Amino acid sequence: EGPTDPWPIGEGAVATMGLAYTQAQVRLIAGFPKRIIAFDNEKAAQDRARKLCSILEAFPGQTIRIELDTKDLGSAKPKEIRTLRRMLK
Q: Which of 35, 46, 48, 80 is paired with 54 by a 20 to 30 Å CA distance?
């Protein structure tokens, strides 16, 4: 969610800049053929991730919500990062 959280993923990863997201962000994210939503593993963040996935499922492509073992992408283990990178291909 935060600006630096997706950096370990690399190309194709974006941040919503918090739990809130705009319609413009939804349209941009919907333009990706494969969308992996990886918000923080707190309940409020996962609730928002479910809602965002529900919205994105109306668009062509694939939407996947994942819940990390760690608090957020910024503190994800290298194995989780490798798995996410493979999923984006």
A: 80
